C-alpha cells in the first residue's frame, strides 16, 4: 500500500514534480495559440503552417496518450514519466531553435510524444504514491496548481512573445525539466501495475495517430493539390477502418470496442466531441482575432482570455456537487448552450471592440458554460462503466477531446473560407471568424441535444472524479485510476 504522507518532505517533493511535469504540457497547450501571429511573421508561415504548429502536437498526443499510460503501468510510472519530461524538454529545445516552419512542426510532433508519456503519468504517480487518507487532498492540490498554471499560461506566453520573443515560450520548458527530473529520481517512489500482462497495442496506437494525421492533412490542405488531398483523405479513412478492425480482433486492444456497449458512455463521448471541437476551434481563432483584428498585443490577448480559466478554477467543484444532486443531464444540456451563447456574443468582437462591453461578456458566458459542463462530463464518463475500467474510460474521453480539438483547428478555417494569408488581412479574417463562431455554436447545440436525449443519472455508487478544480481548456480532467489491464 502506498504510504507517502502529504505533510512529509517526500510528499511535498512528489507533489512538486508532478505539478511541474504536467504543468509543462498544460502550459504549451494554452500559450502557443497566443504566439501564433508572431511565429507566422517571423517564419514567414501561412495559415496552414500555423494550423500544423498546433495540430502536430495534438496528433501525437491524442494518438499515443492511452499507450503512454499503459507503458507506465508496465515499466514503471516514474521511469516513463521521467522519459516523457526529458523527451518533452528536448523537443521544446528543437521548437525554440527551429529555423523554419517545417522544423517547428516536426518538433511539435515530437513534443506530443513526450506529452503522451508524461501526462497520464503525473496523476498516476500521485494515485500510486500517497497514502489513501491523503490521496484526495493531493489530487485536489495537483489539479488546483495545474489550473493555476493554465490560468497564468496565456499571460506568461504573451509577456514572453512581446518581450524576449516567441521562442522562449518553448525554451522555458528546459529549466522546468532540469528541476523536475532530479526531484523525481530522488524523491518519487517507483510504482507499476503488477497485474499488467499481454502485448502493447502499438499497432492500434500507430493506426490511430496515422488516421488523425492523414485526415488532418486533408482538411488543412484542402485548397491545394486535389489529388494529394484526395489520396490523404481516402488513406485517412482507410486507417480509421483498419484501427476499428484491429481493435475488434486483438486480445488486448488499446480501445476495447465493447466499452462502447454502454449507451451512456457512447453518448457522453459524442457530447465530448461536440464540446471540445468547439472549444478547440474557439481558442485557436480567438487569440488570432484579438491580435489580428482588434489590435491587441500578445500579452493583452493572453490576459483577455483569462476569465474562462479563472471561472473554472473557482466554480468547478461546486458545479460537480450540483450535478451530483440533480444528475448530469441538465448540466450537460445547459452548459453547451451557454458556451454557444458565449461564442455568438463573440460576433460583436471586431475592429475597435471594447473589452468591457464586447469581449468580457462573451468570455464570462463561455466560462460559465464550461464550469457547468466539465465536472459533470467527467463524472458521467466514469460512472458509465465499471470501476475497474474507470482509468481506461477517462483516457478514451480525454483522447476524444483532444482529437476533436485538432479536427476543429484543421476544419474551421476551411469551413469559414479562410485563405492562406487570412491572418495578415484583418477584414478578411474578421468575416471568416464570424462564420467560424457560427459553426462552433452549432456543434455545441448538437452536443446539448445529444445530452438531453440520451444522458441519464449514473448509479449512486459510481466512481466520482477527483480532479474537480480544473483549469484546462483543451481536454477534460484525466483521472489517474491505475487500472489498465486491457492495455497491457
Automatic annotation (TrEMBL):
Residues covered by the Major facilitator superfamily (MFS) profile domain: 14-459
- Where in the cell? Cell membrane
Q: Which UniProt keywords apply?
A: Antibiotic resistance, Cell membrane, Membrane, Transmembrane, Transmembrane helix, Transport
Q: Would the keyword Signal turn up in this protein's UniProt record?
A: no
PROSITE patterns, alphabetically?
MFS
One GO MF term attached to the UniProt entry = transmembrane transporter activity
Q: Which CDD domains match?
A: MFS_MMR_MDR_like
Gene3D superfamilies recorded: MFS general substrate transporter like domains, Multidrug resistance protein D
Which InterPro entries does this entry report, sorted A to Z?
EmrB-like, MFS, MFS_dom, MFS_trans_sf
Q: Where is this region: Disordered?
A: 468-488
What stretches pass through the bilayer?
Answer: 12-36, 56-73, 80-99, 105-126, 138-160, 166-188, 200-220, 226-246, 267-288, 294-317, 329-347, 359-387, 399-416, 436-455
Could you state one GO biological process linked to this protein? response to antibiotic
User: What membrane topology term does the record carry?
Assistant: Multi-pass membrane protein
Gene Ontology cellular component annotations, sorted alphabetically: plasma membrane
- Annotated PANTHER family: EXPORT PROTEIN (PTHR42718:SF42), MAJOR FACILITATOR SUPERFAMILY MULTIDRUG TRANSPORTER MFSC (PTHR42718)
- Name the chain's protein: EmrB/QacA subfamily drug resistance transporter
Amino acid at each position: 500500500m502506498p504510504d507517502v504522507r502529504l505533510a512529509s518532505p517526500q510528499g511535498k517533493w512528489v507533489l512538486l514534480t508532478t505539478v511541474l511535469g504536467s504543468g509543462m504540457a498544460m502550459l504549451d497547450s494554452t500559450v502557443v495559440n497566443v504566439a501564433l501571429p508572431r511565429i507566422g511573421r517571423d517564419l514567414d508561415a501561412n495559415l496552414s503552417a500555423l494550423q500544423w504548429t498546433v495540430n502536430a502536437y495534438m496528433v501525437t498526443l491524442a494518438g499515443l496518450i492511452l499507450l503512454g499510460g499503459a507503458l507506465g503501468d508496465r515499466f514503471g510510472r516514474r521511469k516513463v514519466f521521467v522519459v516523457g519530461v526529458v523527451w518533452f524538454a528536448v523537443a521544446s529545445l528543437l521548437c525554440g531553435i527551429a529555423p523554419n516552419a517545417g522544423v517547428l512542426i516536426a518538433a511539435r510532433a515530437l513534443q506530443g510524444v513526450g506529452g503522451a508519456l508524461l501526462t497520464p503519468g503525473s496523476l498516476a504517480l500521485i494515485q500510486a504514491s500517497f497514502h489513501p487518507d491523503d490521496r484526495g487532498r493531493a489530487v485536489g492540490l495537483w489539479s488546483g496548481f495545474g489550473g493555476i498554471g493554465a490560468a497564468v499560461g496565456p499571460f506568461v506566453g504573451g509577456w514572453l512573445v512581446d518581450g524576449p520573443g516567441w521562442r522562449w515560450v518553448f525554451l522555458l520548458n528546459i529549466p522546468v525539466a532540469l528541476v523536475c527530473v532530479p526531484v523525481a529520481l530522488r524523491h518519487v517512489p517507483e510504482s507499476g501495475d503488477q497485474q499488467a500482462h499481454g502485448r502493447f497495442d502499438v499497432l492500434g496506437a500507430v493506426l490511430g495517430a496515422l488516421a488523425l494525421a492523414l485526415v488532418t492533412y486533408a482538411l488543412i490542405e484542402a485548397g491545394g493539390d486535389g489529388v494529394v488531398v484526395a489520396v490523404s483523405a481516402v488513406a485517412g479513412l482507410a486507417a480509421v477502418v483498419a484501427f476499428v478492425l484491429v481493435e475488434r480482433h486483438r486480445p488486448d486492444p488499446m480501445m476495447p470496442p465493447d466499452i462502447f456497449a454502454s449507451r451512456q458512455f457512447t453518448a457522453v463521448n459524442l457530447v465530448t466531441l461536440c464540446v471540445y471541437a468547439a472549444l478547440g476551434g474557439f481558442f485557436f481563432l480567438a487569440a488570432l482575432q484579438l491580435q489580428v483584428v482588434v489590435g491587441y498585443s500578445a500579452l493583452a490577448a493572453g490576459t483577455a482570455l483569462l476569465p474562462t480559466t479563472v471561472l473554472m478554477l473557482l466554480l468547478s467543484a461546486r458545479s460537480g456537487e450540483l450535478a451530483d444532486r440533480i444528475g448530469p443531464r441538465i448540466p450537460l444540456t445547459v452548459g453547451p448552450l451557454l458556451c454557444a451563447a458565449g461564442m455568438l456574443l463573440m460576433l460583436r468582437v471586431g475592429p475597435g471592440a471594447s473589452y468591457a462591453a464586447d469581449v468580457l461578456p462573451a468570455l464570462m458566458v463561455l466560462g460559465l458554460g464550461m464550469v457547468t459542463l466539465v465536472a459533470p462530463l467527467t463524472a458521467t464518463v466514469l460512472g458509465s462503466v465499471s470501476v475497474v475500467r474507470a482509468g481506461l474510460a477517462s483516457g478514451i474521453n480525454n483522447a476524444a477531446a483532444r482529437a476533436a480539438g485538432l479536427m476543429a483547428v484543421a476544419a474551421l478555417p476551411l469551413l469559414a473560407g479562410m485563405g492562406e494569408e487570412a491572418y495578415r488581412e484583418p477584414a478578411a479574417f474578421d468575416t471568416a471568424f464570424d462564420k467560424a463562431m457560427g459553426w462552433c455554436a452549432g456543434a455545441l447545440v448538437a452536443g446539448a441535444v445529444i445530452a438531453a436525449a440520451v444522458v441519464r443519472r449514473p448509479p449512486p455508487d459510481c466512481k466520482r472524479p477527483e480532479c474537480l478544480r480544473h483549469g484546462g481548456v483543451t481536454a477534460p480532467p484525466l483521472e489517474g485510476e491505475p487500472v489498465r489491464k486491457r492495455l497491457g
